Amino acid sequence: MEVLARTEADMQVVSVQDSRIDAAVALAFKDAMRNTTDGGPQTVVLDLQKVDFIDSSGLGAIVATMKHLAPDRKLVLAGLSPTVDKVFKLTRMDTVFRVFTSLDDALSDVRA
User: Fold this and answer.
1) pLDDT at position 83
2) pTM (2 decimals)?
3) Beta-carbon contacts of residue 87 (< 8 Å; ≥ 6 apart)
4) Rounded to an integer, what distance in angstroms lies between the CA atom of residue 24 and that of residue 8?
5) Would you call 60 helix, strand, or coil by DSSP?
6) Rounded Cα gap, residues 5 and 3, in angstroms
7) CATH class of the domain at 3-111
8) One MF term in GO for this entry (predicted)?
9) Mean pLDDT, range 85-98, rounded to an integer
10) SS (H, E, C) 90-104
11) What gap in Å lies between CA 30 and CA 4, rounded to an integer?
């Protein structure tokens, strides 16, 4: 599981480079996120633009990342494809996370 990270101002942007977050890579995703976000800024923006499939294990891995950051830090999601967005809506996880249509929208909101 490959993730790329950059820090700007008071946020860290983590971009998932794989097209799937599923049972086969959920553990690797959690480990990559934990290693990448340890000791980082207050807000982590998870860029999911390249992800076109997520299953319950993937959702669980994203929730685990949110719990790892809590209570002092927050996780924001950006760039969900229609398929991934549908999974978040069906599971009502869109009520748990702040979800933005694009990375630019998320960055603008976090900066404000």
Assistant:
1) 96
2) 0.94
3) 54, 55, 59, 93
4) 31
5) helix
6) 7
7) alpha beta
8) anti-sigma factor antagonist activity
9) 96
10) HCCHHHCCEEECCHH
11) 14
